[in-house]
Specification:
Chain A: It is a peripheral membrane protein. The complex is a heterodimer of chains A (505) and B (341). Chain A has helices at 47-54, 77-83, 100-105, 118-130, 147-161, 177-192, 204-210, 233-241, 246-249, 297-305, 327-332, 342-346, 353-365, 373-386, 403-415, 433-448, 460-466, 489-500; strands at residues 7-18, 21-32, 36-40, 62-67, 70-72, 85-88, 111-112, 115-116, 165-169, 196-200, 213-218, 221-227, 263-270, 274-281, 286-290, 312-317, 320-322, 335-338, 421-425, 452-456, 469-474, 477-483. Chain A is α/β, with parallel strands linked by helices. Classes of the chains: A alpha/beta (505), B mainly alpha (341). The A-B interface holds A 305, 307, 327-328, 331, 337, 339, 344-351, 355, 359-360, 362-371, 390-393, 396, 413, 434 and B 189-192, 194-195, 197-198, 201-202, 204-212, 216, 269-270, 334-335, 338-339, 341.
Chain lengths: 505, 341
């Protein structure tokens, strides 16, 4: 533990909850003077929630923030800037139609006789940017410069305004290698000036290049803080996707399934989304899909379900060739798909829980054969009870339910169609622990009933628990397949990391 | 059954209250307003007048409701009215039979709807832009059909649609009543209504659930085109002529207003055909009421705007939150209890 004088920013026991989930659970985070501190974790781990609590964009539910030794409580991002915490986001949040100088001094333009002193402003803007080795025409519109330059202008503004802590939220996501190098030179310079810098990214390569320490978040909790030099890449990935927990539930292993595959995909793929792959799924099998963000898991699911049409390969069900050109075609073949982004792709927010549950079944029957109201009520009540969907009644708009209950309602939508192949994309993301366990149990019981399932999850221990086989993906290709005793968190992490030895995550 | 009737009435209550208030206010200023009489087997009176004059907007509002429920909008309906009026007039004057004339006119309206629907559903153009195309071009097309003149006709069959009567009611009223009931039954007795609402709330999620999104979207615009065609025939039959410049002018705005007054959100989703019909009748009642009360005509538009603002305030979510707050303890205590785990 460091002494407090070393830390420029100390957040202790930060808590933040949203209806139905605990986004941050007693998170401790310490940032030293003059260090670059990488904040890592898969999507939904709580990185952005933590940042938003630090910058006042969210009000935290509990915990304290010490900045430079004094306790602070930023009410909003403006307040945080004033206190000394500046943030630069991936999407530059400056005004592209104003000049560079105007952007740098927006809201605090130097004045003379009550008017903006444009000449003084331009001069000071040039001086400010000279510190960043940038020689720009500050009177030109910001939009006329590249994203990288805009990024630096945003940093210059944030540092000039705040000057103690700089938060970089995925600043390199849209930059090329040359621009990243320029950005990193500036980050090192700021670090030498004693700023504390929080760096959020998905590129592990860059983490190793620039950061001094790494803090990993998972499910709203701190997994640990390590010195970058002492943490090898494999251990880092294990921290991000969770290996320690896996050891405990490894006994609950699903037995491999023998027999002929029901679903056979050969050389199946779509250019620009997922490289052609071969996939077999048997009845009563759960095929897990593991891989880091952007490795092609969701793309695989979408192409199997016809949300995007395959442009190569063949699909067969029990030896019969099928054309999965659209979700409707896939649904006709008794496929079901719970998408990853529940809110935009899953729920129909204003409609009731009942209507959401019967939607897919009704769509399959066609509009001329409506499901009677009595039958709708029976279906809705059945699944509300069977899946323990917590809602005041079946007529409540689904958007008012918690994440876990929305997820169960979407599952119910597909179960109502009596699917034979169910594809679940991150079925347990962003839901509370109780609902999480129920969904895992549901997956197991569906498998025992002989359904085929394909489950994508970032939680390795979960995949290990219910998968009969695990496919590992990286760089939009299927690269490894594990079955039987080879399914273990260690093996999965090994397979993911093997790929990442050579490139960005 | 009684509970369905009750939820239905609860949905229409604001519109019914607004309509009653307007009718009451006008009848104070203009005493003979509510009287009805039968002459030659047909009802006459200001109330019947409102229903009759309101026919085009009611019809447009029926189609507009379904389009708006899909999160769309159809700005072209006024122009389609002009096109269809012109088509009907030019066919009847060139010697075609009434049946042929009506069939072709309806087909033209449906064609306009298919055009809009294709732009929106297949080319994925924003509905406001997609339908603006036909709104602008439509009047030009209508002028081409009438060759720039007002095409008058004398066919008694076609005129009957505008000024005849059936079962004691003017023909336009009979037409919109029948058509409204057919459409309402069609969307609510089949699954169409729910699927359209699902598309309006979340098109992507609906598509992924297997809803045939493009076809239903096109169908919504086709219905709107069909409604505009019928409204166009009524408007032309009423004046026994087709005026390409003025037929249906600005009526798309009245139709949108009728839908909004009827309480259907422009953001799509939940809709009610009956409420939109009431909305259109409210607008017509205001129009007729102001004329009858003898206000100087220059006040008409302002009074109309004021009344509409009042109705919209009654429906605004903020007003509802404030209102719900007053009766909260009784209304929501139970659900929150059950939700808590």
């Amino acid at each position: 533990m460091q002494t407090s004088s070393e830390n420029i920013l100390s957040a202790t026991r930060i808590e933040k909850g949203f209806p139905g989930t605990k986004a941050l659970d007693k998170v401790d985070f310490h940032l030293r003077r003059g260090e670059v501190h990488a904040l890592l974790g898969e999507n939904g781990a709580g990185k952005s929630t933590l940042i938003k609590c630090l910058t006042g964009a969210y009000r935290r539910d509990g915990g304290s923030i010490l900045l430079d030794g004094t306790e602070v409580d930023p009410r909003d991002t403006f307040d945080a800037q004033r206190l000394g915490i500046g943030t630069v986001y991936q999407e530059v949040n400056l005004l592209p139609n104003l000049t560079v100088a105007e952007n740098l001094f927006l809201g605090r333009q130097p004045r003379r006789f009550g008017m903006v002193d444009i000449r003084a402003m331009n001069r000071r803007a040039r001086e400010l940017l000279a510190e960043y080795e940038l020689d720009l025409d500050v009177t030109r519109d910001l939009a006329s410069y590249s994203v990288a330059i805009q990024q630096v202008v945003a940093i210059a503004r944030a540092v000039d305004l705040s000057g103690k802590v700089l938060i970089l939220d995925e600043p390199t996501a849209s930059l090329d290698a040359h621009e990243v190098a320029m950005l990193f030179r500036i980050v090192r310079r700021l670090k030498a000036r004693g700023l504390g810098i929080i760096f959020i990214t998905h590129f592990l390569e860059q983490v190793y290049e620039i950061s001094d320490r790494i803090t990993v978040l998972r499910n709203g909790q701190i997994v640990g803080t390590r010195d970058t030099a002492e943490l090898d890449r494999r251990d880092l990935i294990a921290m991000m996707i969770g290996r320690e927990l896996a050891a405990e539930i490894q006994s609950a292993h699903a037995e491999p399934v023998q027999g002929r595959p029901r679903y056979t995909f050969r050389n199946y793929g779509r250019r620009g989304r997922i490289k052609p792959f071969d996939l077999d799924v048997r009845a009563g099998e759960v095929v897990g899909m593991a891989g880091l963000l952007g490795s092609g898991r969701t793309e695989t699911a979408e192409i199997l379900f016809g949300a995007h049409r395959a442009d190569s390969g063949t699909a067969e069900i029990d030896g019969r060739k099928v054309d999965l050109a659209s979700p409707r075609a896939a649904i006709r073949e008794k496929f079901g798909f719970c998408p990853e982004d529940r809110k935009t792709d899953g729920i129909v927010g204003d409609l009731s829980v009942r209507e959401n549950i019967v939607l897919a079944l009704q769509a399959r029957r066609g509009w001329t054969r409506p499901i009677s109201r009595a039958e709708q009520n029976r279906l809705a009540d059945h699944y509300i009870r069977a899946l323990d969907i917590r809602t005041a009644d079946r007529e409540k708009p689904i958007k008012l339910l918690s994440g876990g209950n929305q997820q169960k309602a979407i599952l119910a939508r597909w179960l109502a169609t009596e699917p034979e192949l169910l594809i679940l994309d991150e079925p347990t993301r962003g839901i509370d622990v109780g609902a999480h366990a129920e969904i895992v149990r549901l997956i197991e019981s569906l498998r025992e009933k002989g359904m085929s399932l394909i489950v994508i999850s970032s939680e390795i221990e979960e995949l290990v628990a219910y998968s009969t086989r695990v496919i590992v993906l990286r760089d939009r290709a299927h690269v490894a397949e594990l079955d039987g005793q080879r399914i273990s968190a260690g093996q999965i992490v090994e397979a993911i990391a093997a790929a990442n030895e050579r490139g960005a995550a | 059954m009684t509970s369905t009737v009750r939820t239905y009435l609860a949905r229409l209550l604001p519109q019914l209250i607004a309509l009653t208030m307007i009718l009451a206010a006008v009848s104070i200023v203009f005493p003979g307003f509510l009287s009805l009489e039968i002459q030659n087997g047909r009802l006459y009176g200001s109330l019947i007048d409102i229903l009759n004059r309101g026919a085009p907007v009611v019809l447009l509002a029926i189609g507009m409701t379904v389009v708006i429920a899909t999160k769309g909008i159809d700005l072209s309906v006024g122009a389609v009215m002009a096109i269809c009026g012109a088509t009907a007039a030019s066919l009847i004057t060139s010697g075609h039979s009434l049946a042929e004339t009506l069939l072709v006119t309806i087909a033209v309206g449906i064609l306009c709807g298919i055009w809009n629907g294709l732009l929106v559903a297949v080319l994925d153009i924003q509905p406001i832009i997609a339908t603006l195309v036909l709104m602008v071009a439509g009047r030009g097309i209508a002028q081409l059909i009438t060759e720039g003149a007002i095409l008058t006709f004398n066919d008694p069959g076609l005129s009957f649609i505008g000024s005849g009567s059936f079962a004691g009611l003017p023909m336009p009223v009979v037409i919109w009543l029948a058509f409204g009931i057919i459409v309402a039954l069609l969307v609510r007795q089949t699954a169409l209504g729910m699927l359209i609402e699902a598309i309006g709330v979340n098109r992507q999620a609906s598509t992924l659930s297997g809803v045939l999104t493009p076809v239903l979207l096109i169908a919504a615009y086709v219905l709107s085109g069909l409604c505009a065609a019928i409204a166009g025939v009524i408007a032309a039959a009423d004046i026994k002529g087709a005026d390409a410049n003025n037929a249906g002018l600005w009526l798309e705005l009245d139709a949108i207003l009728a839908v909004v007054v009827g309480g259907t959100s422009l953001l799509g989703g939940r809709f009610s055909i009956a409420a939109s019909v009431l909305g259109a009748i409210i607008i017509q009642a205001i129009n007729t009421g102001i004329l009858l009360s003898g206000f100087p005509p220059e006040f008409n538009l302002i009074i109309k705007a004021a009344i509409i603002v009042f109705i919209l305030v009654l429906q605004s979510p903020r007003f509802h939150t404030a209102f719900a707050f007053l009766k909260m303890p009784r209304a929501t205590a139970k659900p929150t209890e059950r939700e808590a785990k």
